[in-house]
Amino acid sequence: METSSRMEWDSWQSEVGEGRTKGHINGYSKQVDGAEASIHFLHGNGFAVKTYSHFLNKLDGFNFILQDAAGHGESSPGDHFIGWNASANRFLHSLAGQKGLMESKMIGMGHSFGGGLTVLMNDQNPQLFDKIVLLDPAIFPPRLLWIMRSIKFVGLRKHMTLAKRASRRRTQWESFAQVKANFFERGTFKGWEDECLEDYIHASIKCDENGHYQLGCPPWMEAEIFSTYPKGLWRAVKNISIPTYILQGQDTEDFFKEGNRLAAKLNPNIKVIELEGGHCFMQQNTTLAADAVMKILKESE
Q1: How far apart are CA 40 and CA 118, in angstroms?
Q2: How far is 235 from 128, CA to CA, in rounded Å?
Q3: CA-CA distance, 43 to 28, in Å (whole number)?
Q4: 94 with 67: CB under 8 angstroms?
Q5: Residue 91's domain is classified under what CATH number?
Q6: Is residue 24 part of a domain?
Q7: What b/e string do you get for 143-152 counting C-beta neighbours within 10 Å, with b at 16 or more?
């Protein structure tokens, strides 16, 4: 497989759940000599966490702790999505087993789904993070949560647009060229830097012994995440007591912007900064996104 120049990660595996929900979470880390803080990073729905390697590589001087949600990367999918809040709790459980990685200050960072989970992790353990940086987070405005609850109540959850699209996603290809052609400049991947797309393929697409390629995250998992929502989200947002920065793409979905504005209005610890690009701005212009993050972290030291 063609690949970009990638970061080298140490990996670990943490057993989580029991019975039908028993499985494991895969985590990754990188230690830097002299680093004063560690970035804990969580990914968006459908993107294995190492999809973000090219962007993260530009955040100099920090340790990294990454985790893959169920069904992403090498983390086991189980037979159903356990929910946003339980997923956040699993990440906390997995992280607690890696005490050697938590000796420095912790910065909570996440994109989209991972941003929402970072907020939930902070709510469940307010002493974990010293700062939070959220990249176009899934902070759904109350009106959208009301709609999602109503759809769930009448049994139409699987018919939501993003969930339907995910469930119909192509899952198999015969060559690397087919894989790249399937994603290049299409849909969510429009405008992505080549290195980021190759990192996505390397991290989120699996190649078998016959040279055939398979989508790593099961479409049903991606669909279930899209059709569900975190419980107590706005309580968690209001409870944030540490400096928190939301970076949003100027072309992202309007409902994300609405949620971000409300979060900043309700909590003076939250500041919103807009950058050029869409929902995946950190994949479209890694240098711009990394510079913005570095400025935030350096200014708030």
Answers
A1: 9
A2: 18
A3: 13
A4: yes
A5: 3.40.50.1820
A6: yes
A7: ebbeebeebe
69-118 tens-digit pLDDT? 999 999 999 989 999 999 999 999 999 888 777 778 999 999 999 999 99
Task: Give CA–CA dist 208/156, Å, rounded.
Answer: 36
- What is the C-alpha to C-alpha distance for residues 149 and 293, in angstroms, rounded to an integer? 34
16 φ/ψ angles, rounded to the nearest 5 degrees: -135, 155
H or E element in which residue 110 lies: strand 105-111
Residue 153 in domain: no
Number of domains in the chain: 1
Q: Does 287 reside within a domain?
A: yes
Joined tokens for residue 299:
């200014």
Distance CA 189, CA 197 (A): 7
Strand order in the sheet with 213-215: 172-173, 213-215, 205-207
Structural domain boundaries, residue 128: 11-143+229-299
- At CA 201, angle to CA 215 and CA 167, rounded to 5? 30
Task: Select from 286, 82, 129, 123 the least CA-distant residue to 200.
Answer: 286
pTM, two decimals, is 0.90
pLDDT tens track for 128-163: 999 999 999 999 998 888 777 665 544 444 544 554
On whether the CB atoms of residues 67 and 44 are closer than 8 A, the answer is no
- pLDDT, tens digit (0-9, with 9 covering 90-100), for 178-218: 888 888 777 789 999 999 999 999 999 988 878 888 888 88
* Residue 300 to residue 4: CA distance in whole angstroms: 32
Residue 203 included in any domain? no
Amino acid making up residue 73: G
Question: Of 283, 290, 192, 300, whose CA–CA distance to 244 is shortest?
Answer: 300
Please report the DSSP string for 2-42 in residue order: --------EEEEEEE--GGG-EEEEEEEE--TT--EEEEEE
